[in-house]
Amino acid sequence: MSVNRSVNTSWQFTVTQNGTVNQIVAYDMWFQPMVNPGSTDQPTDELMIWPYRSKASPAGSRQGTVTIAGTSGEVWRGTVGTWSVYSYVRTTNSTNANLNIRSFTNDVVRRGWMSNSKYLTSVQAGPEIFTGNGQVVTSSYSVNIN
Questions:
Q1: pTM over 0.90
Q2: C-alpha to C-alpha distance for 12 and 142, rounded to whole angstroms
Q3: d(CA 96, CA 133)
């Protein structure tokens, strides 16, 4: 992260729910203290960006509100397993995201929660359906590191 490269992403999707559904649709980024972690190396940090949620709450506790990438939302901090997790949850649901993930990593570092010496090792996106029946269909997705 210390080289300060942009991580621009675009994601368009649709959500279908049948009845009461407890789910999120989110980006999930993983951070490691080494540049090329092996398959047995656990991450130290996880950053989640939730453009869409239905009746779900992030791990940990709410730390406040924030406006990043032109949208407002809540910021949460917690622990899952052996790593720290930071979740940015939009105030209003969206099925269209165009953002620079770097804006969110800068906020986590500014808050003192994560070191700027960590390496971003993975960028993922998709649904987590905890209860109920739903479907997420991605029409386009891209991540570009500049």
A1: yes
A2: 10
A3: 22
